[in-house]
Amino acid sequence: MQPESTPIPPSFQEFMENAQRLEDQMRNAQSELERAIVTGRSQDATVVVMASGLGKVQAVRVDPRVYEQRDAASLQAAIMEAIQAAAANAGTLATEKMGPVEINLH
After folding, report:
1. 12, 57, 71, 72: most buried by Cβ count inside 10 Å?
2. Average per-residue pLDDT in the chain?
3. Which residues form a coiled coil (predicted)?
């Protein structure tokens, strides 16, 4: 004769169900962020960076008129501004979907 198994208390079962729901929500949010595209622009609008909602850079677009100016320092600053703006936008989107997270562009 086998001993009867002790039933799991309802509070523990509810905890496990809630944990599973939270895990599912986080997976869905992560999947949405992987598919989402955010942009960042330099202050002078000569550079646009597109990245996923998780911060993976997808594309960089540079206005051709910057080549006429031949100002490497300004172009470098514009690229940095656009990257920072894209990272900030990815962070904002991630916070909306998942709560506070850190975004690193790579």
Report:
1. 57
2. 85
3. 12-39
